[in-house]
Amino acid sequence: MRTFYLGIIPALWLIWLIYWIGAAIGAKETQREEDLRSRLTHHVPLILGGILLGWPGIAGMQLERRFVPLSLTWFWCTVSIIAIGLGFSIAARAWLGGNWSGSVTIKKGHELIRSGPYALVRHPIYTGLLLALIGTAIAIGRWRALIALVFFILAIARKITIEERFMSEQFNDAYARYREQVAALVPFVL
Question: For the chain, what is the mean pLDDT?
Fold first, then answer.
């Protein structure tokens, strides 16, 4: 039974990763892409967050202390939060279709998607991932996981800034109206 509890959260992330890799097939050809320096501004905090989240003891014993107690209720709440977040990001990725890219790009024939999850928030993939990362940090329950979460938030905030600039340049007034009507990450919070 312990193996089940230890494995369910990594299994959810693994299922997400397998989908993510498979869904990358069939993306449209890139027309414009952010440069390496720009990419590093969000990749470096993402990598640092991943190291902190996944490497127990890396930040010292003080950060290995728990900030939430171990309990079955907390566990199932966090599993639910993670599943909902990953599911929402998968739905958003599927809805985006060939317009998706792992880096900030404009695709040939790029479309401004405003329906489905994109009617709720402009960046639903990040909304879902942040929800799943919050759930994961709480599930780990150690201070290093909260610090990792800060790095993830910084990475996503930086990437959103770059994406917003690209989309504004590509879609001009249409994107400006979309920004006025739809929240960036949290539905109904402009």
Answer: 91
pLDDT tens digit string along 163-177?
Answer: 999 999 999 999 999
Tell me the CA end-to-end span of the chain in Å, nearest whole number.
44
Task: Give the span between the Cα atoms of 82 and 77, in whole angstroms.
Answer: 9
**CA-to-CA distance for 154 and 170, rounded, in angstroms?**
25
Query: By C-alpha distance, which of 88, 72, 61 is closest to 5?
Result: 72
Would you state the structure tokens that stand for residue 43, as one six-digit string?
């990749």
Phi (first) and psi of residue 103, to 5 degrees = -110, 170
Per-residue CA distances from 80 to 6, 13, 83 (Å): 15, 13, 5
Mind listing the domains of the chain with CATH numbers? 2-181 (1.20.120.1630)
- Do residues 83 and 119 touch, judged by C-beta distance below 8 A? no
Please indicate, yes or no, whether the overall pTM of this predicted structure exceeds 0.85. Answer: yes
